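Let us practice reading a record.
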Amino acid sequence: MTTLVHTRADLAAARAAMPGTVAVVMTMGALHEGHRALLRAARERSDHLIATIFVNPLQFGPNEDFDRYPRTLDADLTVCAEAGVDLVFAPDRAEMYPSGEPMVRVNPGPLGERLEGASRPGFFHGVLTVVLKLLQVTRPHLAFFGEKDYQQLTLVRRMVRDLDVPVDIVGVPTVREPDGLALSSRNRYLAPAERQAALSLSAALRAGAEAAARGGDAEAAARAAFDSDTAKLDYLVLTGPDLGPAPAAGAGRMLVAAWVGSTRLIDNVAVEIASPT
């Protein structure tokens, strides 16, 4: 049975009754199959599973989609129940930030100012602040994050390491539609033509990964495969697994962000870089 709580006090009481290994999956709601994959992975590795549902205002810029971000709590609770979630913590804004916007926030460092951070100033300050707060109130042993938000996953791992937060961060592979589109709560904003245009992101990543495996120019191949007539590219880069410079050969990561109509989408894939031919 899934229990829903809205306050820190009720969360603390429920958490105190959870012996054994506790896992958490943090979400902003509008749950889809990608979230189901996170919940399944967490359920398999824990005795008790907590899901959080909170649309965090700190990570939305002044011209972003906070007000129209989908709120679907009833449907989300059904997903959580089906996935075997023990406890759902769904606080309101005042419960998470009782004194208003926090004066002290987590600074993500230089990596937080690149890629998503460059396009969305202050974004990762808001993300890491709410993640740290949720880790403090849920006190999990394991926290599961999707690889689709790869920069977020990388920064959360760095934060818990640098700040000695006693939790293991587990990455879960991206879930895709049969045609390759990465699942995202924002996909529901896409009109049919935009949904087709959004395939440019995954097509570019596939082309880049294939070029990297041949020892070719991965970024050039990815840009050539991206349809700039139907989507507006923000960034497309090849990096190392830690988002530092790409190695001459070995494991890497290719990341892309683009606007499709008024919707901004991100995606990434692991690549294996062969020595240049």
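A brief commentary: The CA atoms of residues 17 and 126 lie 30 Å apart.
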